[in-house]
């Protein structure tokens, strides 16, 4: 790698870790950066999932005092279901041909961007209408579906998890953010192990991005509890998501 590529991956990894902790959407930065430096798309997606892991862990540590059980499922049950879903999603990615993935990616980016942009509204509607009363079976099915998505494509996973937690009975936003990062770490870990076994990780870019994402995730966890205008950050991430979707559609 050239010095410019190392700097690009470092900045993208730091920003992705920061965004994932504060508002989500870090994959909108990490995936294009990996593809730009020459990593094939499917491998870039797998590598982006791996590099997000330390950022999720460090930001989850920042929220460790806020996490409590609020729904029908225990935290261990949520993690267990997440592991199953992540494995299924990762296997689905492995068997997806590269050309098919390139066709799917822009649509996934559009879906993730729309969900990210509407995230606060959707979460507010779920809580306002009192939908957060799902039983064990519905709660498990909800977490499983989102985890399968996360195992296949990490983009937009955070906001989908927040909406899922609101649906199954969570109301404490800081606790939801912490659990979001924990489950994102679980999904990323299971997916990454599967991708490593399949030989899909680009290790040099992954190392650079993982280190910077760890720093960004820890800083983001501390910043997110103090930030007031998260809407401005959300507008920025949404704009990045739209631009990335357009770029992939034009490829």
UniProtKB/TrEMBL annotation:
Transmembrane segments: 73-95, 101-123, 130-149, 155-173, 182-201, 207-225, 232-250
Membrane topology: Multi-pass membrane protein
Gene Ontology cellular-component annotations: plasma membrane
UniProt KW keywords: Cell membrane, Membrane, Transmembrane, Transmembrane helix, Transport
InterPro entries (alphabetical): TM_pro_TauE-like, TSUP
Major location (coarse): membrane
Pfam families linked to this entry: TauE
Domain of life: Bacteria
Places the protein is found: Cell membrane
Coiled coil: none
The family this protein is said to belong to: Belongs to the 4-toluene sulfonate uptake permease (TSUP) (TC 2.A.102) family.
Name of this chain's protein: Probable membrane transporter protein
Organism: Yoonia algicola
């Amino acid at each position: 790698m050239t010095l410019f590529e190392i700097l690009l991956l470092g900045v993208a990894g730091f920003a992705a870790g920061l965004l994932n902790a504060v508002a989500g959407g870090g994959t909108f930065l990490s995936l294009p950066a990996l593809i730009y430096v020459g990593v094939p798309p499917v491998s870039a997606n797998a590598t982006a999932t791996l590099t997000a892991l330390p950022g999720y862990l460090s930001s989850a540590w920042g929220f460790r005092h806020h996490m409590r059980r609020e729904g029908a499922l225990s935290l261990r049950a949520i993690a267990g279901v997440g592991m199953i879903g992540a494995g299924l999603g990762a296997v689905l990615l492995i068997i997806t041909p590269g050309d098919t993935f390139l066709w799917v990616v822009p649509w996934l980016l559009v879906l993730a961007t729309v969900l990210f942009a509407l995230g606060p509204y959707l979460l507010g509607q779920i809580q306002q209408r009192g939908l957060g009363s799902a039983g064990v079976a519905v709660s498990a099915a909800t977490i499983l579906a989102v985890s399968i998505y996360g195992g296949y494509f990490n983009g937009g996973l955070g906001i989908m998890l927040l909406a899922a937690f609101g649906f199954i009975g969570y109301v404490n936003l800081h606790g939801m953010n912490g659990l979001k990062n924990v489950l994102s770490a679980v999904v990323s870990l299971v997916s990454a192990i599967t991708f490593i076994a399949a030989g899909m990780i680009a290790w040099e870019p992954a190392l650079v991005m993982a280190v910077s994402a760890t720093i960004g995730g820890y800083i983001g966890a501390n910043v997110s509890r103090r930030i007031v205008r998260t809407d401005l950050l959300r507008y920025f991430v949404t704009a990045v998501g739209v631009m990335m979707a357009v770029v992939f559609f034009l490829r």
